[in-house]
Amino acid sequence: MTHAPSLQQQFIGIAGLIGAGKSTLAAALGAHLQLPVYYEPVADNAYLADFYKSPDKYGFQMQIYLLNRRFQQHQEIIWRGQGGVQDRTIYEDAIFAKTLMQQGMIDARDYDTYLQLFKHMSHFMCRPNLIIYLDLTPERSLERIKTRARDVEAGIPLEYLRLLHQGYEEFIADIARSVPVIRVPWDEFQETREVVERVQEVYTRGSFLRDVRWRPSQA
Question: Which of 50, 87, 93, 174 is catalytic?
Answer without folding.
Answer: 87
